[in-house]
Amino acid sequence: MILTTGSAGFIGSNFVLEWFAVCDEPVINLDKLTYAGNLENLASLQNNPHHKFVKGDIGDAALVGKLLTEHKPRAVVNFAAESHVDRSIHGPEDFIQTNIVGTFHLLEAVRAYWNGLPAQEKADFRVLHVSTDEVYGSLAKDDPAFRETNRYEPNSPYSASKAASDHLVRAYHHTYGLPVLTTNCSNNYGPYHFPEKLIPLCIHNALAGKPLPIYGDGQQIRDWLYVKDHCSAIRRVLEGGQLGEVYNIGGWNEKANLNVVHTLCEILDELSPRADGQSYKTQITFVNDRPGHDRRYAIDATRLERELGWKPAETFETGIRKTVQWYLDNQSWVQNVTSGAYRDWVGAQYGA
What we know:
The protein is of the alpha/beta class.
């Protein structure tokens, strides 16, 4: 059995779904169910006896300790995090509480449980902490991609809070011997992505006839990773990663934001054309850039391929087409998550 945290959210729910697609090992799923946590993501597991959902906070050390003692998982995979840069700019406190304080309480509960395990179970136990490439800061156009040895230079409250959590995880390994693994991923996209991030937001707005908001000149570059590839990489690191080590997970797909949106529009023009025959590109609108917007991220995932034999199965072209098709096929899911509170937030962030 494994315990996953934050796994009613985008990446975590995809991980649990993919986990059961390849094995039947039971999962205890702990999630606080904030705005981005959605049990509808896990609806297909409702009758699965191997999946147990528990509503709760990683900062609740007593609850985490109780789950560990009762279910005796062999591993903990931590997805729980506040993860949107824009929201961290407007309200950083939630990011400090969840990503730093929450991670601390989780580590304390796990350490107490791990210390009490029999020798073999203690040796086999793992904690995998899921983090982001944003902890490394921003790259110039011609800089080499981020490697695991890059120093941390976070530039937003979000990335600073994730950097702090990474440091705590590292410290618990070096101080207490806790058997940890850390992964730093590039920008994910795919099914069940809450529509505040670029790709799902633009798909949602395009179909609704609304502007497609692009920050600044749209030339911010990101390395795009299909979420199911990310999930397979996490499983591989959990299985074979070296204790105390960091593994960068990337899609080898550097794209400027504006180019991503152009591709989305072209696929939508093909799969769900506008009634007036015009391209969705006519809805693109440039808005004021956000404060401190990092110009470029890029992941060098060579270590993961060299040591553990992992590389992504999807190109950006195949992954983005699957993503657009999923949103077209699951409009009821989109409508259910885009509540009035969500609409108010988008209006405040990008303008009416």
